[in-house]
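Pinned message: reference record for N-(5'-phosphoribosyl)anthranilate isomerase
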Amino acid sequence: MLVKVCCIQSVAEAQMAVEEGAGILGLVSEMPSGPGVISLESIAAIVREVPSTFETWLLSSATSAEAIVQQHAACGTSGIQICDALDEKEFASLRLKLPTTKLIQVVHVTGAGSVAEAVKASEYADVILLDSGQPGAEVKTLGGTGNTHDWSVSKEICETIDVPMFLAGGLNGGNVRSAMDAVGPFGLDVCSGVREDDALSVVRLRAFMDAVKGRGLFRG
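Predicted structure (tokens):
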């Protein structure tokens, strides 16, 4: 199971995540709400210190290709996690402008209708990531909520789409095995479940990784 540790806020946190077995680091740029936001300059500084064998994903709430490209140019991550819905034409433009950058589309699982949304997004994205935000709220939540969602919908998406799927949303060392059994995702994404007092917790991170490894499915 490939693990992405999100909301990384410093080089020290990046090093901790890598040492504990994360294969991907999530770096959060400006969001309408939620934890882990750091400047593009800070993201770039972290990316420079991460070994090239590890992936780095920029989390963006922008909904235009031009804005996303500008963010990516400033930080140089290997992937871009698009946290809000992106118009089909904007996605096509983004792909054209960044042909070698991995594009990850977030689908917030809010009900059965999320299956069709994920299937459509999988036609364009390299990866689909299922989360528990509320993009339709007055103040959007696009991740880092600490809330789980209906894993039966996630399972249906996982079984339907033809691209890798990551599961996020309220995962922690206590429930991640149940999540893997219920959904069968390609990878896992964790933020709030491994943080404490606004910092990455080595105790919680290790417990999460140990739970994943205990299923015999771990891919570092």
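Pinned by admin. Summary line: Confidence is low (pLDDT under 50) at residues 216-220.
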